[in-house]
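=== How it folds ===
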Amino acid sequence: MDIEELQAYCLKKNDVEETFPFGDETLVYKTNGKIFLLISLNSNPLQFNAKCDPDKAIEWRERYSSVLPGYHMNKQHWNTVIIDGSLTKKQLCEMIDDSYGLVAKKARKK
């Protein structure tokens, strides 16, 4: 998955906006004003931060060396995912979907 595929995947979800609130090196995706994905544009290989259920976050980290505690984020609820080929596109999309779902669900409750 490259940056264009990642952007297209995020933007096809409902009520998503693409922003740069932290400068031009970090691409941020929000739904209902809440962040669900951050992409580091200067990282090589490409990487992103995704929100995750705490138990599932630990499970992903234990299974894959390319999934780390969220860089500059709450380590309990966020993972940093390095796109180095060790995870399938389906797995990457699952993480993005889970992150979007957690944030959208919380926004709907409020």
Summary: The chain has one domain: 3-109.
